[in-house]
Design brief:
single chain; about 180 residues; Jann2411-like fold; two-stranded antiparallel sheet; 6 helices; 4 strands; about 50% helix; binds zinc ion; Znf_CGNR; ABATE_dom_sf
Length: about 180
Amino acid sequence: MGMQIRQTDIRGPGRALGLRFVVDAVNAPDLASAWPTLTKAHGDPHLGELDASPEPVAAAARALREIFAIHDPRQAAASLNHMLAERSAQPELAELADGRWALRPHLADASTAADTLARVGAFALATWLAERGRCAWGLCEAPDCDRAFIDEGRRAPQRFCSSTCATRTRVALHRKAAVRGAPTA
Ligand SMILES: [Zn+2]
């Protein structure tokens, strides 16, 4: 067997309630209403029964969104460490349905959606920072888009949430340059 570079798949089943859940939660326009659907889609329907009062859950999402805006790893680490401590998100080993083991934040005593989101979010982003060695995430730089995204690339840092946003930004820039460069009649 040849050496293989291990690529973390953030969509893998071992990552239930992981990075994709965090991104979807942070990007949800109405998180309180979306909470049961989101937790179900990301593998833990029981969490959908938690109290998802709009204000606290929106505050937790905002706090995580602020992390997505940070690009300095030391600053991000300080914020994440603070969030982990504040929310008592100590890690524990959990056996997944398929028999594999996952390291996750302790959730049994998280009584609200806000608490759960903060613990899961801070833990997922902290793990990802450690794995990538940089803030491999961001907020989309396209006009009229502020979606949070996870940067899975290996080369240049990602600036947009999707190829759609990257393309339309490039097209807009070209158009602007063309207008500027157009000969005046
Ligand atoms: Zn975008």
